[in-house]
Design goal:
about 400 residues; alpha/beta; Archaeosine Trna-guanine Transglycosylase, Chain: A, domain 4; Transcription Regulator spoIIAA; Rossmann fold; seven-stranded mixed β-sheet; six-stranded mixed β-sheet; 11 helices; globular; binds S-adenosyl-L-homocysteine
């Protein structure tokens, strides 16, 4: 696999995005593929005129037919290439482990880190990897070995069970990949709190690492407030609010497993359980029931799952966001805070703000954006890959 004998030639004028260092080559831009390509194999990408553009990983059935590893004709895509790239990323992350006060971080964030399709999260020495496209899939054993060697971690667990693999024609695969078996619950520390993480069956790779900086923000805003935490998962925002001195928290999620882990996390931290109420319920229903009962809160957190993975689903997603934000505005006391997120790649920052503004208008509430929130610094956004930004949040104070 070290030397690519394969070539992919683009249609005339379709090299522009590649020259701007965007890593995706859509099938509609491809004129010809020369040679027998296996999925994930390295291909030489050429402009229509035959100029070298980059080395990419071939994805035969995906709409993204190649993802570019690098733009340097002289740098071969071999084990040394991946080792160099991983070393560079890990040395950047080293600083974050200290400044973020945690032993759990995203170590590799795909395209943004120059390794398209590869996600690696570290939970206190247990690495969890997702091989989301054919390129990293072809190198998965070598990548896992390098990761163990470079990090000194105990194990690499594979969670290649994300839906995007279907678009690549790859099967779902989960299980121990290298090293020792991780414990059923891996305990991590973050900003002075402790969380149990189920790397085998938890959401994503087990925990929402992307909200770390925002959990700290909630902690700093929660003192004395009565809080409603919607879509609480294993209690990240709930515990942060309690730790920050919230007078009460009502935490809602539809998943019994997530709520069970949230309650264990509360005990792990020896926080005062009498200040929390857990509710297993659909948030859309719970918000309506709270409105009908005339309940009011000083802070409401809305962190729903991805309603729109792509722009095509944005309209349906917009209805979902509008609905929960409108109800939340009605449940806030004057001066109350709405901390509202969208993790949908298909809903941009502008659209999200418009949806929230529309919800406030329909709820007959005036509000002001105090702060904009994003995914944490272990989920960086390459300037050439703006799609890397997916988590947007607003802190809105109502009049
Ligand atoms: N705020 C959490 C992450 C939330 S992830 C944290 O920081 O860790 C989204 C959560 O929404 C998941 O726990 C999922 O179980 C839950 N969920 C999805 N749809 C739901 C619905 N309609 N009602 C209630 N919970 C829902």
């Amino acid at each position: 696999m070290a030397v690519a004998m394969l070539e992919m030639r683009l249609k005339p004028g379709r090299e522009k995005s590649v020259l701007r260092r965007h890593p995706w080559v859509f099938s509609g831009a491809v004129a010809h593929v020369h040679g027998e390509h296996a999925a994930g194999e390295t291909t030489r990408l050429l402009s229509h005129a035959g100029e070298f553009l980059g080395w990419g990983a071939y994805s035969p059935i995906s709409q993204i037919q190649a993802r570019i590893w690098n733009w340097d004709a002289d740098e071969l895509i071999d084990e040394d290439f991946f080792c160099r790239r991983l070393r560079k990323i890990l040395s950047q992350r080293k600083l974050l482990f200290q400044s973020e006060c945690t032993d759990a971080l995203r170590l590799v964030y795909g395209e943004s880190d120059g390794l398209p399709g590869l996600i690696v999260d570290s939970y206190a020495g247990v690495l969890v990897a997702q091989f989301l496209s054919c390129g990293p899939e072809a190198w998965r054993i070598q990548l896992a070995q390098m990761l163990l060697e470079l990090t000194g971690a105990d194990s690499v667990y594979e969670r290649s069970d994300a839906d995007v693999r279907k678009l690549e024609g790859l099967p779902m695969r989960c299980g121990q990949l290298l090293g020792s078996d991780p414990p059923a619950v891996q305990v991590i520390q973050e900003s002075g709190l402790i969380y149990g993480v189920d790397v085998r069956a938890g959401h994503k790779t087990g925990f929402y690492l992307d909200q770390r900086t925002n959990r700290r923000r909630v902690r700093s805003l929660a003192a004395g407030r009565e809080v409603l935490d919607c879509f609480c998962y294993t209690g990240g925002f709930t515990l942060s609010a309690l730790d920050g001195g919230a007078s009460k928290v009502l935490a809602v999620d539809s998943s019994p497993d997530a709520l069970a882990q949230a309650q264990k996390n509360l005990l792990l931290n020896q926080l005062d359980g009498s200040r929390v109420e857990w509710l297993q319920e659909d948030v859309f229903k719970a918000l309506r029931a709270l409105r009908d009962r005339g309940r009011l809160f000083d802070m409401i957190i809305l962190d729903p799952p991805k309603f729109a993975p792509t722009a095509a689903q944005a309209q349906n997603a917009a209805r979902g966001y509008k609905d929960i934000n409108l109800l939340a505005f009605k449940l806030l006391r004057p001066g109350g805070l709405l901390v509202t997120y969208s993790c949908s790649g298909g809903v941009g920052e502008d659209l999200f703000q418009k949806i929230v503004a529309g919800a406030a208008l329909d709820a007959n509430v005036d509000g002001c954006i105090l702060e904009r929130l994003y995914q944490g610094p272990d989920h960086p956004v390459a300037l050439s890959f703006p799609e890397g930004l997916y988590l947007k949040g607003l802190v809105v104070q109502v009049a």
